[in-house]
Write a structure and sequence with these properties.
Two copies of one chain form a homodimer. Chain A is built from twelve helices and twelve strands. By secondary structure, chain A is of the alpha/beta class. The termini of chain A are far apart. Chain A binds a DNA duplex (16 and 16 nucleotides) through helix 2 and helix 4.
Chain lengths: 336, 336
DNA sequence: CTGAAAGCGCTAACAA
DNA sequence: TTGTTAGCGCTTTCAG
């Protein structure tokens, strides 16, 4: 650990630690001359204050936690960028935790936060998360929490999401307009808020356009790629397979393309595909992919900003804040 | 911040804080019965020890820093996964910092580490980094540093890389074997270790196969997408444009595909393309992309393991450890 | 304008 | 087996 302490500075300068401490935070009760001398020595000795001593004393860590299901997904990568940008700007540090879509891991990560390790939390819940006690627990301790993208409805706090319902509707409607008669929605969870909202939008579009929801209208995928491959292959092997697919998350797209390739199905002739995705390579896929793109960076940024507001204004309590940033439809060849 | 402290526990149980502290770490000098009572109350009150108090006292933070150029790149996303997996396993926390390829940002981030905020550092340097004083400075303070992927040669410490020279050679040779007569290497920096090693491998392959290095044999790209687009477009607009391209990093691939599309150049007929990339969508690009894939997850894992070794064994000093994990060539249609 | 002193919550030597 | 004590480095009253 570091060696230069405030005590050493004080000793060298024949000042008290209190005076040095005040000089360091540019207190008005310290003379210009003293401040100058202090800063000079600080530069000379390369002094950097011990953050843990100060955290202990001030009961603030200037650190936030970002809890994510995973990071190998363009959405979360972009969101981290947005979060980190705001944090760096505000002088905060960012601890990152991955749940790998595992609820009990999420619980134990959250439990640690009761220690006061972080001043605030940004979280996108795991696909397994169906209740939010572990989150309420830390809130009770006065630690603000902001959800982004994947929220937990029952927890009352700020949420930054995108217009999932409308996007599901738009996706389905786009396929309908392009002539699809039988559209399947590939879900990733029957409990996750975003998956369900997107699905509801999809259902509404079907109803509005007098299309019945077939039994294989929704296929639930998992965290296991091999399983998903088989489920989708199974679906598409059928003689009257769907002629339209909506992938609710990015990673399912690649599986869909593989299945179609392996079954010799042409996209978009045999089946049209649209995906919720932030893949920067969507445009150069074979065929180029029609996407619903979420404003990932902006969502991260907005969530972080909300959190820092709560952190910096006293008596600022996060309640029902609900920021909804719109996704956009990018029409490409996979739905031609 | 948290409210239950060790003092409160001690008070409730009519014990001294020292005893409770020892009971919590399962010290042999505490009776079974006392330990039981302590744990009971711990569970009841949901006590979690204050990490900052303990860090201050023990001069250890159980936290490492991961410093990256960016995160919206499959390589770094996968590497974070590897790092986080090891850290979570060892009970360490992970602070993440992005330099956005900016050297002075990297410096100020490193400077903060002199405070003792972290016990160790994993870093992949920015493209602008040409010297390592800021890194040596923290090392001098006894904080171990492990480089991964993008190293700083002059700093003596452990490094985890992939076989960049050989990969550059393999990439060029692959294009030569496939009949390319004029191959251009798209670099991202003339100082970055990985970019140069890959380039040297490329040059060696040309020499070995009696091909001369043309003036436009290497094109230096930047961090600016528009600039890169123009540079590559310029290169490819020429009548005798190269018939083979090596993209030294993932993000350049997408630009290359766009340029070719805009200039109506067919890949691989008019120009063959190979890229250093971890894109999971490489297989479903149009055309599917031949890649040199780095073992990103494994590199993150290896770097983290090395660091934790240094952290946990006393008197363990990182010196010339040099782990080289091989990349693999995946031949696909873009070089057919 | 500067100094003295208490204490944030925890650990670890030493005493009992 | 348990208790006492002295800090880790810093902030912040309160006095001078």
């Amino acid at each position: 650990m570091a060696n230069t302490t405030i005590k050493k500075l004080a000793h060298e300068l024949n000042l008290s630690v209190g005076t040095v401490s005040k000089a360091l935070k540019d207190s008005h009760e310290i003379s210009i001359e003293t401040k100058r001398k202090v800063h000079e020595l600080v530069n000379k000795l390369n002094y950097v204050p011990n953050p843990y001593a100060s955290s202990l004393r001030k009961r603030k860590s200037k650190t936030i936690a970002v809890v994510l299901p995973e990071v190998a997904d363009s959405f979360f990568s972009l969101a981290i960028n947005g979060i980190e940008a705001v944090a760096q700007d505000k002088g905060y540090h960012v601890l990152i935790y991955l749940t790998h879509e595992n609820f009990s891991k999420e619980q134990s990560i959250l439990k640690d936060f009761k220690s006061g390790r972080v001043d605030g939390i940004l979280i996108s819940v795991s696909r397994e998360t169906t209740q939010g006690n572990h989150i309420c627990d830390v809130q009770t301790l006065g630690i603000p929490v902001v959800f982004f993208d994947r929220v937990c409805d029952e927890v009352e706090t700020a949420k930054v999401t995108t217009n999932d319902f409308e996007s599901g509707y738009v996706a389905a409607k786009h396929l309908i307009v392009r002539g699809c008669k039988q559209i399947t929605y590939l879900s990733i969870s029957n409990t996750l808020s975003i998956a369900n909202k997107r699905m509801e939008g999809y259902c509404k579009a079907l109803t509005d356009h007098r299309m019945e929801t077939k039994e294989n209208g929704v296929v639930f995928c998992t965290n296991n790629e091999a399983y998903n491959y088989n489920a989708i292959k199974n679906l598409m092997s059928n003689k009257d397979h769907p002629d339209g697919l909506i992938a609710s998350v990015e990673k399912l797209t690649i599986t869909v393309y593989h299945v179609c390739n392996d079954l010799n199905l042409q996209i978009p002739q045999d089946v049209k595909v649209i995906s919720f995705s932030n893949l920067s390579s969507a445009l150069i896929l074979n065929p180029s992919l029609t996407t619903i793109t979420q404003p990932a960076f902006e969502m991260g940024e907005a969530a972080a900003s909300l959190l820092f507001n709560a952190l910096e204004k006293r008596n600022f309590i996060l309640k029902g804040e609900n920021i909804i940033l719109p996704s956009v439809l990018n029409i490409r060849n996979s739905t031609k």
